[in-house]
Amino acid sequence: MAQKGNEVVERPSPGQPADEETPGELEALEENDQLGALRPRLAPIPSDSPGAAMSPFNKYRGSIAWTEGFEQNLHILAKDQYPERAMGVFTSGGDAQGMNPAVRAIVRMGIYLGCKVYFIHEGYQGLVDGGNSIRQATWASVSGILDDGGTIIGSARCKEFRERPGRLRAAKNLIDHGINNIVCIGGDGSLTGANLFRKEWDSLLKELVETKEITQENADKYKNLNIVGLVGSIDNDFCGTDMTIGADSALHRVMEAIDCITTTASSHQRCFVMEVMGRHCGYLALVAALGSDADWVFLPESPPGPGWEEQLCAKLKSTREMGQRLNIIVLAEGAIDSEGKPITSEAVRELITNRLKFDTRVTILGHVQRGGCPSAFDRVLGTRMGTEAVLALMEATPTSQPVVIALSGNQTVRVPLMLCVEKTLAVAQAMKEKRFKEAQELRGRSFKGNLETYIRLSKLRPKLFSNKQQSFNLAVVNVGAPACGVNAAVRSIIRYGLCEGHNMFAIFDGFEGLVNNQVKSLNWMSVNGWSSVGGSLLGCQKAGASKTGLAKVAAKIREHNFHALLIIGGYEAYTSVLQMYEARNKHPEFQIPLICIPATISNNVPGTEFSIGADTALNEIVKICDKIKQSAQGSKRRVFVIETMGGYCGYLATLAALASGADQAYIYEEPFTIKDLIDDVDHLRKKMEGHLKRGLLLRNEMANEHYTTDFITKLLQEEGKGVFSARSNVLGHMQQGGLPTPFDRAFATKLGCKAVTYAVSLIEKVATNDGNVVCNTPESAVVLGLLKRQSEFTPVESLKAKTDLEHRMPLEQWWLKLRPLLRILAKHESVYIGDFIESGVDEVDE
């Protein structure tokens, strides 16, 4: 059984654990809940807290009911399964990176299922205007838009739609095109408008029949309007989903700017005030501050109390006295003080300049945060959500309630649209009434956990948060290959442990460094600024515990009197924990908490769906693929074969293919034959007859012993003579480089804090007065990972049976369910139908 630790954080990305559930029921909207029992996850306000009895927000202090999406069953979908149906898609409100991948998925999945799909240009304005604003989309309409920011179908505000006459015109335009299924991509305002439109649909059709603008036959044919929403917003301010489309990309823009600013700030010993967007939501500011080691952050949900000016100046002054050459302050555009008065970036600059005489500058990022290419995460998220939106529309019934496609942990789910909107509005109301603690809780445990973690880790020196009488020795080591985000994990482990009053040690150069006594006690400032650094500042070696020598490792653990060992790394870290666990009887020194924190670009560690470093590597691959596609497009009729790393695990190849719009991804987990390769050649031949004359194939480095990257390239070159040429590119170790992405920084920080909490909880249960620690249970040798909606500590003893030891990866991998989607969106009909028949769908259809 996997054991769950105390909830510390929640992931802001593909693989983000949702809030843990607590007993109880929501009072509101139960009669409208079509998706199952509503399951709250936030505790009610303590009865003795001020204003508890009169709080109007208790009914929103819970999780949103959700139904799991159809994603894991994509393999049973049939081509043209829903013929003679029509749907429209529009984007509304502020644009967000990732909208285009969502539009692409909606169009292509809809066409694949036999539907007519229409673009509704310029949001609600196009719905009201009709005519040329509503145009049928084709497969080629959405070619080459995955890496485009913004929205190709436009977005605009529309005053007419707010009035009934405007909605009446919109209804007529939809009926004229035979559309009664709509996907709305936007924020809470856009989704509220869509819900109102649906509620009025029946009366709108009756009025149109009475005025003879539509026939009764058409009114009867399209009597039901089905609405599905996708939340596109860089603010990540919508309740009901862990991440909104565009938020991760906006974080990339923010973090890139801060990383650039730090170099010039350090050169001139300057202080920078960075103002980020987010309206009344501090998500972007908080996660950016957490991932950049910012000295201070101003949030709308957590306003500073009286005297904050003195506290800020005192802290900045102390940092300079300790030798720090720069200061970074992150300010959300909606920042206020405890009295509700706005705090502006210019006011903060004047405060620091006047009181401290620091050279202080302001950088307002503005709409830069909305621009640029979507991140790999937003491309995959938009694709998954767009696909699920189409399936939700196809499965809708006359009694179905409007739903929003959301991300819960690493699952696409369907949640009631209006309950999400009402809870989102409740946050704004709580802040308006200065109920800031409630606003933080309504944002979710992820937000609150991020805030608590930032407060602990951003201080100048450790502030003890516990009254523990005993201090223990905790050690951290990095084993395996480099992965971006490792340094952020080390920083959080060291600082969180110091906050708990323990002695923190770092082991340099892996287990070999331990044997060679490369052990150092780290203090608070030893890890200052580590979060934004790539690679491994501790140094890492691939030699695991067994290869180094279990007896030698045990002797050093005894010599240094370590009470817990936190091992950051990939498959070698996992096997090292397993080896030490199995050797506990022979070497009692291993009877301490042994925790593996997965960190590898291969994402092949059992017991977790995501590993630190995989997101950074995926983004590096996708960026390179974008550039290669440009080269192929310029050359005309050229196919590139890209080889990725990952060992036998095809995670990087598959997700990069999905995020870059590749035609195929060859991986070890899905065997392929020469016939499959020939089928792909035929597919590329047909593709070259269209307007997009380029091809992209990805291959995992260990996909097949004989069908190598060179072999596939030569096969394409030969079979494509006269039609296309072929080139190959082996990406190599550039996939391990770069600066960690916002996801990897935040993910690593949170896992580090959670690991320390868990290790200390185990130690305290068994520690004697003289400091001896003996942990000999399966729960004391674990992998800390993300599994579906939760962060879990899974004993390596149980994981061994779920591991392909020969090929160094888990026997079951969540991302394999996305493989059919990759083939569908690349128009690989022959390959997909083959899998469809092989999986026994004929019997299902009967």
Automatic annotation (TrEMBL):
Composition skew (Acidic residues), residue ranges: 18-33
Gene Ontology cellular-component terms listed: 6-phosphofructokinase complex
Active-site annotation: 235 (proton acceptor)
Binding site for Mg(2+): 188
Enzyme Commission code: 2.7.1.11
InterPro entries: 6-Pfructokinase_euk, ATP_PFK, Phosphofructokinase_CS, Phosphofructokinase_dom, PKF_sf
Reported cofactor(s): Mg(2+)
Gene3D superfamilies: 3.40.50.450, Phosphofructokinase domain
Residues noted as binding beta-D-fructose 2,6-bisphosphate in the record, renumbered to the chain: 542, 600-604, 638, 645-647, 701, 727, 733-736, 808
Positions that bind substrate: 233-235, 270, 277-279, 333, 361, 367-370
GO BP terms: canonical glycolysis; fructose 1,6-bisphosphate metabolic process; fructose 6-phosphate metabolic process
An annotated Gene Ontology molecular function: ATP binding
Recorded catalytic activity of this chain's protein: beta-D-fructose 6-phosphate + ATP = beta-D-fructose 1,6-bisphosphate + ADP + H(+)
Region (Disordered): 1-54
Keywords, ordered alphabetically: Allosteric enzyme, ATP-binding, Cytoplasm, Glycolysis, Kinase, Magnesium, Metal-binding, Nucleotide-binding, Transferase
Entries under PROSITE patterns matching the protein: PHOSPHOFRUCTOKINASE
Top-rank EC class of the record's enzyme: transferase
Record flagged with keyword Cell cycle: no
UniProt cross-references to NCBIfam families, sorted A to Z: 6PF1K_euk
Family: Belongs to the phosphofructokinase type A (PFKA) family. ATP-dependent PFK group I subfamily. Eukaryotic two domain clade "E" sub-subfamily. Belongs to the phosphofructokinase type A (PFKA) family. ATP-dependent PFK group I subfamily. Eukaryotic two domain clade 'E' sub-subfamily.
Subunit note: Homotetramer.
HAMAP family (UniProt xref): Phosphofructokinase_I_E (MF_03184)
Protein name per Swiss-Prot or TrEMBL: ATP-dependent 6-phosphofructokinase
